[in-house]
Amino acid sequence: MIKKITIIAVLSVLVIVIIGVAFSNSSIENTSEDSEPVVKGDVIMPTKVARPGCEETDRCYIPSVITIQSGQQVTWVNEDSAFHSVTSGFYESPTELFDSGHLDPFESYTLDFNETGTFDYFCTLHPWMKGKVIVE
Ligand SMILES: [Cu+2]
Question: Are 84 and 126 in contact (CB under 8 A)?
Answer without folding.
Answer: yes
